[in-house]
Please model this.
Amino acid sequence: IINGGIGGVSVGGDANGGGIINGVLYVKVMTDEQLEILRTQIAVYAVITEQLVEMHKAITAQQDLAGVRLGNLYCDPLVTAVGHKITARQRWTPTAVQLQILERIFDQGTGTPSKQKIKEITAELSQHGQISETNVYNWFQNRRARSKRKQLNNAQNNAESEVETDAESPKDKKITRPENFQAQHNSAPRAEDLCFQSQEISSGMQSIDPQPGKIEPIFASDGNVK
Amino acid sequence: IINGGIGGVSVGGDANGGGIINGVLYVKVMTDEQLEILRTQIAVYAVITEQLVEMHKAITAQQDLAGVRLGNLYCDPLVTAVGHKITARQRWTPTAVQLQILERIFDQGTGTPSKQKIKEITAELSQHGQISETNVYNWFQNRRARSKRKQLNNAQNNAESEVETDAESPKDKKITRPENFQAQHNSAPRAEDLCFQSQEISSGMQSIDPQPGKIEPIFASDGNVK
DNA sequence: GTATTATGAATGAACG
DNA sequence: CGTTCATTCATAATAC
Model:
């Protein structure tokens, strides 16, 4: 079956294209969809494999002794050595001209680009390089979000000056949790980020685990200490 | 053994060639050889997975006889001890297993998750990690909405082919991602996915892919790819 | 090369 | 339900 799958890939860029991205001509033998699926499949196996290996180690360890050092067991980086950097997902990069236009439109107030507007903008920008409506949409989303965050950040900084115990609610966001952290000069979370599930995201969470003494299923770690 | 798997693969990445270097045009394609390697590597994962599942089953069986369960193995004493450090991640993130199950259910047609259904699904998924009914509900909402929007987008793209006026490539503008088939979501095994919830891995495997030879969803022989 | 930053994209949750 | 927001992830760009 495995063989059956890949064998029939259409060769030639017409299925989805290829095309020119940033001046580079790409001819594809697989569609983006196919690539994505492949990537996912491999990723799934990578994950499963790691999980199983971890589990096996844990069980083995338990068998060996009282399982005292379980604490660091599951984090062994060596086991996670399975390389799962499968691809290089290509990503749109606006050209200078496009950026300029986008910025101009953004500054023009209308914070809501609306679908029709997006279409127009996309049409215009496509004169200056490859771009899609999704790209434009994302750009505005990100632009607005980051602009907002920056403001908020500044406000906070001003209000806070030195005191760490500051009352933290300069803006009173939405509802839900007060948990509000923002830090981004730490994007080096590559490998050592571990899993973590929030434990109280919702109170509706009923454990129907038949097992007695059900424990927090997790094995947690600091998901985001950065 | 495991490491031998996927390490050096590069699908569609620059490692494969492609691009313009010093004015020389390179066409990037994947050779049959490379495809074969990929195939092989996927098969390797399939085999490893199967073996590990078997191993786990055997060991688990032993454990059961002894009346010992794995359930609480993964409560990291360190983490719980330093409880303050762990700031709850405010947003639920499905584990790989959960995602697989969700996708499967989603694909099964029933577009109406109904209250009762949600409850059931949540119950099942909670075996694989923290989750609430709200999470499930939201997931289905989002899944459908985005699936729909994508379709609409594609349709639009297909329908219109005259706006593009010139240079560059007047074709597929959406270089972004697919999501039309079934098993593609987590684009990469995020570190969080590496976490596994104790006892249910092997059963979770069922929903992912019980058979090594059946990687299946990959390449549905093209078809509707634009 | 490696590390850091900037930013496009993905997605859970909330709003109307 | 469709749209929008907020947060996070991955990677292009850049600094070191």
Notes: The radius of gyration of chain A is 24 Å. Residues 174 and 180 of chain A are 11 Å apart (CA to CA). Chain A touches chain B through 119 residues (CB under 8 Å). Residues 89, 91-94, 134-135, 138-139, 141-143, 146, 174-176, 184-188 of chain A lie near DNA strand C (CB under 10 Å from a C1').
